[in-house]
Amino acid sequence: MDTIISASILSADLCNLERDIKRAEKAGCDYIHFDVMDGVFVNNISYGIPVLKSVSKVTDIVLDVHLMIVDPIKYIKQFAESGADIITFHYEAGSDCGEVIDLIHSYGKKAGVSVKPNTPVSVLYPYLDKIDMVLVMTVEPGFGGQGFITETLDKIAELKGELDKRNMTVPIQVDGGINDKTAPKVKENGASILVAGSYLFGAEDMKKAVDVLRDRF
Length: 217
Ligand code: DX5
Ligand code: ZN
What we know:
The chain is α/β, with parallel strands linked by helices. It has helices at 17-26, 49-58, 76-80, 97-106, 152-165, 182-188, 198-201, 206-215; strands at residues 4-8, 31-37, 62-68, 86-90, 110-115, 133-137, 172-175, 193-196. The longest helix has 14 residues, at 152-165. The two termini are 14 Å apart. The site of D-xylitol-5-phosphate has 22 residues, from β2, β8 and α7.
């Protein structure tokens, strides 16, 4: 399976967001990763619905929305109607996991569920047959540019093992600290969708950086 690259615009120049989205498209990124932070679920505030609406008007690329907010069920409708293609929420965020997945699907969108580094992946096993993607956080959510947490590799491998055992092909996404050094490791352990922010937007040649994430190892 070819690796999918999702560019996190948290590290883009937000005054030149359209330009940076086009840069990511030209560099060969498959998705734009849109991080929503509410200052409650995580200790940071990013951007939300109005920005997503504007972004969806200037690009046809897949919009991969990562909700780091409490009570995601309250906002699914608005994100779905603002251009999200994939909506990922956190298992730890306080809404009923099954209900949120069903709601996302009712708008014809793909549903992802994420776990923070200290949450075991096994909490998601009861939902695997209705999830379109699992996001294993490889840093504590909240900020770009943090160091990769090595212990999360075992979680990726454990989840991949469970999926293989069940003959399922749910893609595993990883997010946080992904670069030329960590990409081969996460892929080796079973991840197929790589989110990268600072590594891509900080690269002199973004296309080369995308190729490195995709092909190396
Ligand atoms: C962090 C966000 C990430 C972040 C990744 O909570 O979910 O998407 O932008 O940034 P890097 O790739 O710089 O670690
Ligand atoms: Zn993210």
